[in-house]
Amino acid sequence: MSNTSWLDGVRVLDFTQYLAGPACTRMLAELGAEVIKVEQPPYGDPNRGNRPRTNRRAGAHVQQNRLKKSLCVDLGTDDGVALVKELVPLCDIVVENFSKGVLDRRGLSYADLKELREDIIVASITGFGHTGPLAEKPGFEFIAQAATGVMHLTGEPDGPPMFTGIGMADTNAGVHAWGALGHALFRRERTGLGTHLDISLADCLFQMHEMAVHSESMTKGRHGAIRNGRHYATISPAGTFGGPQDWIVVFCAENQISNLFNAMGRPELIEDERFKGNPARVAHRDDLTALIEEWMATFETDRAVLDVLEAERVPCGPVLSVWDAMHYPHFVERGTIRTVADPLAGDIAVPGFPIRTIDPCDLPPVDGVAPALGEHNREVVESILGHRAGTVDRLVESGAMGEKDR
Description:
Elements: E1 11-14, H1 20-30, E2 34-39, E3 53-54, E4 57-58, H2 59-65, E5 69-72, H3 78-87, E6 93-96, H4 110-116, E7 121-126, H5 141-147, H6 168-191, E8 195-200, H7 201-207, H8 212-218, E9 238-242, E10 247-251, H9 257-263, H10 278-283, H11 285-296, H12 302-311, E11 316-318, H13 322-326, H14 329-334, E12 337-342, E13 346-351, H15 377-384, H16 391-398
Parallel strand pairs: 1-2, 1-6, 2-5, 6-7, 7-8
Antiparallel strand pairs: 3-4, 9-10, 10-11, 12-13
Helix pairs in contact: 1-6, 6-7
């Protein structure tokens, strides 16, 4: 097995903050890229102030910024911008998630960066992209969910639209940007050309619509995609069902429905006119839901229900809390949740790297510390850029750079 990480030798200049951008550059770092995170003094990435915190160390910062180097430089100063411009020719990738125009006003537009390195690859992550009527609109997670129909599809049918319980737009855009950057590097290897990637939270959310967009299109809007509460609109049974203790998910397409009826001890239901074919089951969803929940109520535990369903190969599972999911044996064994040791916050569980390989290869490192603010100022300025000792002290004193021990 090679000792070389997949992105060994790739250097990334990271202007990102909050979630979407850091999620992208964190995955680059986990594959071995050298990520230099540019942070604004005096406080750096706002994620550093998130709660919960231990010893003034935020879990959000530890999760998203491990393995990165922190360069704390004020892009509102000439010295700060000049320092960053010196770094650009030494970097393969630049990632930023400012609103459109923020870097342009600092002389760091794609055109400016391309003058410094012809084949630079830049990924810009924004709410609505760099083109179109909403390009200038600040975009955050909930705004993107609202604008793309995601909120309209989430909640109870007679209730208000609701946002999902996770930062889906941000993290999804971060992963899309990460994937696009890999392909941009591959293209550059073949053609020698860089590129400017325009990644939009809204575009990436639309990519996640599995049924709603084409269904509305094919029916000229008559499909009426809307909130369906605890059941999936187009298939029955498919949703959450009240078990003897908690909630259980069951999802049966046509090939699995007889398995469910066998598990229930009611094989004759396959001939019931209400349940013959998915359209009939959708039309009589309430009847079928009542039968399933009545059957589940005959057990003492959810586990007993699941054992019977799984024995008949019925697609099912428990609805777990985040705490329970973190400790679920399957996820523990696969490393889906990873424990990292932070020098200030102690051991913290964070999501593991989501990509696996079956054959033996170099996997992302388990260990890696999130940097203190400006922790790598001297390494970047003196070792990478070759400035003489004392340069950082001078820039800190002038306010062009900053440092903190957290």
